[in-house]
Write a structure and sequence with these properties.
Radius of gyration: 31 Å
Helix content: 10-25%
Order of helices and strands: EHEEEEEEEEEEEEHE
Distance between the termini: 9 Å
Largest sheet: 8 strands, antiparallel
Length: 257
């Protein structure tokens, strides 16, 4: 008795797909993406470790730019590279023993600084527009005219009312100034909580060039792109198998019964 012939579909076992999803070209590109991603990811971390140091700011003397407990990244620099407006990390035993201090440089060697004129800091006779203070009070910071010696820096906290900065050390021999050689790093960004790069101190531009931004943004981009390439390349194999398994079917005849 002749039986009717029917067909059914089933997943194909064995064999190697020659389609674009499971092809060797795709696998090679996947491996290349992972390798390149690792180079960018690890290279970005290594570059950052060489150039930057993390610091935790323990006080609110730099508020509103940096709050107490914020974690910052500071680029290792030589004191000779520091310019007006930079937020720096330095050590000075006449200020604090055994700890680093974070303050903003408002005047360098040869400058004359005082406060306040019409509520603003004055450097070399020019009133400075300090937008990074975000409206914080400046008038209460009384500073008589100080001539900054060559090779030294005059520093203030952004929280002008309570910061123990150069204005609190005016009776010292150096009139509150700090040697350039005491600076170990320049703060580029607040990374925890994620506040990002510090605002550019453009109010000091009429007095001279500002410091060039460090490569922190580039380092972050390298790390992110590297992570994406590693994850994307690593996911290629499982995704290719999943899609290939769904697309490979065969037709089998079903005999008469």
């Amino acid at each position: 008795m002749g039986g009717e012939s029917t067909t059914r579909t089933a997943p194909q076992s064995g064999g190697t797909s020659t389609g674009p999803v499971g092809g060797r070209t795709g696998q090679r590109l996947s491996g290349l993406a992972v390798a390149l991603g690792l180079v960018l990811f690890l290279g970005g971390f290594a570059w950052g470790a060489v150039l930057y140091r993390p610091y935790t700011v323990p006080t609110g003397s730099m508020t509103p730019t940096i709050d107490a407990g914020d974690r910052v990244l500071a680029q290792r620099v030589d004191g000779d590279e520091i310019r007006r407006g930079d937020v720096v990390v330095f050590t000075d035993k006449s200020w604090v023993t055994g700890a680093s201090v974070v303050k903003r440089v408002v005047a360098v060697g040869g400058d004359t600084v005082s406060c306040c004129t019409d509520g603003k800091l004055t450097v070399n006779g020019k009133k400075i527009d300090e937008t990074y203070l975000k409206g914080s009070v400046v008038e209460d910071k009384s500073i008589p005219t100080v001539k900054v010696p060559e090779g030294r820096l005059f520093l203030l906290g952004d929280e002008r009312q309570g910061s123990l900065d150069s204005s609190a050390h005016l009776t010292d021999t150096a009139q509150g100034t700090v040697a350039r050689s005491a600076v170990t790093a320049r703060v580029d960004a607040v990374v925890w909580p994620m506040k990002g790069m510090l605002e550019r101190p453009t109010g000091f531009e009429p007095l001279g060039a500002l410091s060039s931004p460090g490569p922190l943004r580039t380092i972050f981009i390298l790390i992110i792109v590297g992570a994406v390439l590693v994850l994307g390349g690593g996911a290629y194999g499982p995704v290719a198998k999943l899609l290939g398994g769904r697309s490979r079917v065969r037709t089998e005849p079903v005999g008469a019964r």
